[in-house]
């Protein structure tokens, strides 16, 4: 497999999908509920995932696709540790796509025999692509991102979280994160986990804590974070299996330890 060609194609397809979505924000889109009125899917989520499925099948017929909308559900069973797998979220932040028409992304992660190869997160409306071919540096569009500088303390930290931490959940005994948001500099919830994780990789946020993500949400981000040497674990501090659902914590080294020991009191 020519990995440079795979990287080039993955970026090209992502840009093409992004152009499609940029045009779609000014059109009427069909919105359906999945599990509830807070869990949306549009015909664009499915169309973009089908687009990736078709492109991957044509260019790399022996690769597998794991996407949020399950357009490849008919594919044969496979062992991700022995295959090349594309983890694709066609729209990460569908609610933003439907409501405010910005702050949504396309997330594409490629793994070969379980090892990270390529990670791409594309902020469609800002036309900002975060991308990595493993070992070759993290780029934002054409600009190489410097290694992260001196670590910030948690008093200086901007930390992203999703709203699910505010509700009773399977992980936290109490609500220690309430204390955390009073002690840190700022808390953010953009509504696209992939984008928020990319922001940690480039140093725009110092940490992110997400409840209940799937392989398509963090498949690309995990590659970006690894390339930058940023710690990315489950909230319990274990390595993330990117092919399974997980609640995750990413942060620069010391901050990761502080957040975990001070605030994440697992049930
Ligand atoms: C969602 C977004 C959101 C996060 C949710 C995800 P979707 O993805 O990333 O920020 O809080 O947990 O499911 O459904 O818009 O692709
Ligand atoms: Ca969704
Ligand atoms: Ca998602
Ligand atoms: Ca999605």
UniProtKB/TrEMBL annotation:
GO molecular function terms listed in the Swiss-Prot or TrEMBL record: inositol monophosphate 1-phosphatase activity; metal ion binding
Cofactor (UniProt): Mg(2+)
Binding site residues for Mg(2+): 68, 89, 91-92, 217
From the record, give the transmembrane residue ranges: none
Task: List the InterPro entries hit by this protein, alphabetically.
Answer: Inositol_monoP_metal-BS (IPR020583), Inositol_monophosphatase-like (IPR000760)
Task: Could you list this entry's UniProt keywords, alphabetically sorted.
Answer: Hydrolase, Magnesium, Metal-binding
Instruction: Give the GO terms filed under biological process for this record.
Output: inositol metabolic process; signal transduction
Q: Which Pfam families match?
A: Inositol_P
Q: Which domain of life is it from?
A: Bacteria
What's the protein name?
A: Inositol monophosphatase
Q: Which organism is it from?
A: Natronobacillus azotifigens
